[in-house]
Amino acid sequence: MNPIKFLKACYRKVDHWYKLCYNAVFFSCEHISRLTSEMQDRPLGLRERVTHWVHMQMCSWCRRYASQLQFLRRQLGHYAEHYPEEADTKMPDEAKSRILKKISDSPKDSL
């Protein structure tokens, strides 16, 4: 067997087992991204904070997601500063009825 192919196969096996063990000990990226979003709305408990911190130290994808959330939050804050609530307009009743009709006419399994 070609040594490069052998090393790639070994790497795939190790990577697979590493991910399985990692997700068993620590939470998955899906769970951590949910926690990252919830951090914007509520304070996390001690165990959640520790788990989140440890995962973020090791996972560049989750760090990237957190930085994107922070960016969006900052941008929306700037938007709110430029367009205060007094300038908000109400949606016309005809637009509301069109939206509700579209929602009720759409197939239920499309979501």
Largest sheet: none
Average residue pLDDT: 80
**How large is the radius of gyration?**
23 Å
Distance between the termini: 48 Å
* Beta-strand content: under 5%
Q: What is the number of strand segments?
A: 0
* N-to-C series of helices and strands: HHHHH
Overall geometric form: elongated
* Unreliable stretches covering 5 or more consecutive residues: none
Q: What is the count of structural domains?
A: 1
- Which structural class fits the helix and strand makeup? mainly alpha
In terms of quaternary structure, what is this? single chain
Q: Total number of helical segments?
A: 5
What level of helicity do the residues show?
over 70%
Description:
The protein has one domain. The protein is 75% helix and 0% strand. The mean pLDDT is 80. By secondary structure, the protein is an all-alpha fold.
Secondary-structure blueprint:
Elements: H1 3-25, H2 29-39, H3 46-58, H4 60-82, H5 93-105
Helix pairs in contact: 2-3, 2-4
Short description:
This protein is mostly helical. It has helices at 3-25, 29-39, 46-58, 60-82, 93-105.
List keywords for this structure.
111 residues; mainly alpha; elongated
